Amino acid sequence: MLGMSIGQTFLGLLESSPRHGYDLKRAYDERFGRSRPLHFGQVYATLSRLLKNGLVEVDGVEPGGGPERKRYAITDAGVTDVSRWLAQPEKPEPYLQSTLYAKVVLALMTGRPAADLLDTQRAEHLRLMRELTRRKVGGDLAEQLICDHALFHLEADLRWLELTAARLDDLSKDVAG
């Protein structure tokens, strides 16, 4: 998924309960990586970075046939980190919908207000659209065309944000199910 933070997504998934690396990969692939599943190398590199940064901790180790299975749990710092990430609007750019979709689903999964997240993002898109419109008015033809291109993409994102907001109840049931 372009631009999406695997680390923060893992933190959001760990917030509901501690999980093994394998379970995290499965949950991630099922919800967010249908077209591009994670490699196990990515999973363990990400967990190792989260561990080093104090955002997760090893919650338990179970001996097994192969390597020992570590269970990871989110720390208070990890909860703070994922909260900050979910509350902060993304820079409007192409292919943003995968990150926005992940944020909405994780907000619903962790009992956070997904509607607020969508409102914050809508405000950021509208701010950028106003800025582009001002640039367009004072610009030459090339600048106008560049601004128009960006504005069309932002309008499509806005429609998606509004459609998603209208379907939050259904998505919430889907996520819970």
TrEMBL record:
Residues 11-80 form the Transcription regulator PadR N-terminal domain. It comes from the Bacteria. Gene3D superfamilies: Winged helix-like DNA-binding domain superfamily/Winged helix DNA-binding domain. This is PadR family transcriptional regulator. It comes from Phytohabitans suffuscus. The lineage of its organism: Bacteria, Bacillati, Actinomycetota, Actinomycetes, Micromonosporales.
